[in-house]
Fold this protein.
Amino acid sequence: MRNIPFHKTYITDNEINAVVEAMKSGWLTMGPKTVEFEEKFREYLGAKYSVSLNSATAALHLALKAIGLQRDDEVIVPTNTFIATAEVVTYFDAIPVLCDIEVDTHNIDIIQIEKLITSKTKAIIPVHFAGQPCDMDEIFEIAKKYNLKVIEDAAHALPSKYKGQYIGSLKNSDITCFSFYATKTLSTGEGGMATTLNEEYAKKIKINRLHGISKDAWDRYSSKGSWYYEVVDNGNKYNTTDMNAALGVEQLKKLEWMAQKRNQIAQMYIEAFKNNIKIELPYVKEDRETSWHLFVIKINNRNEIIENLKDMGIGTSVHFIPIHKHPYYQERFGYRNGDYPIANKVFEESLSLPIYPSMSTTDVDYIVRNILKLVNESN
Ligand SMILES: *Cc1c(COP(=O)(O)O)cnc(C)c1O
């Protein structure tokens, strides 16, 4: 029996040596390596400003703070996402207004968005599910019509393209948030990045990632000595370390190659399953390029198949348990299990298969063979 975990980060001696170098430099916290990582990251995407943070959750939090979110404001969030996307809205005592998804892409349904807008709506957080960009032009149009901000949750979308442009560089977007969590397509263990074209937003996020301390004041009053600083906001402690950044710089060098590997695996799955009527393959719209962070198929007896695959040494996962099903969100905001019929149906049938660069063709064959066997045996 093989043992194929659901995910494995691609780490080589390059990453290990880079982290050791950062440690030897004597500068462990946020410093020159962080600046280098931020620069290389925005160069890669063609973004204007980039601010590194210790998670995508931190990036989303400070993005909402940068746009000035207030108590009782409403933010539209798809229900099919990781809890962080809605959680950050609650930090402000604001309301995450959940939205249903499209049955084919599993992305936020733009037809539903407009129905949810009220005089209190301040922003939309589209999530590029599995790496496939949302209908951004339509979302920007709605945002313009109702004067809303757009914060992209791009935790899955590195690298992904919308109409030929990298997610993270779209000119109508306010702020885009990336994750470098252990399971993501570029990993620094823990980490995140906010990109934006807006200098004000970048400045606010930078100040708030380190206690609301203003560097401007530092520069202005440098005659007072290097000990001087001013606190201009109620900030957070969301900075990264140079060890994380060193890991990020190395991972970024192979990002393109890792994406190609995932694409090859995705094409193998597609080829293997395309003629099986019991397996629904992921659907990618023509003008999008997905990172293939996740490869999600839909099958009828999903729970049973997960258990059987586990017995065969194959790790899988489910993305996501919709937010409206979680007790906290039901108790606080009144959501019910039966809300959002599309997301519920998608959730019942979805199965995320292993997809990462170190998988071999033999691994993929083994997964394919066993899934076909299980699916064909079932009714
Ligand atoms: C992973 C993830 C996040 C959170 O990322 P962290 O870096 O762990 O904070 C947010 N949104 C989505 C959709 C995610 O998958």
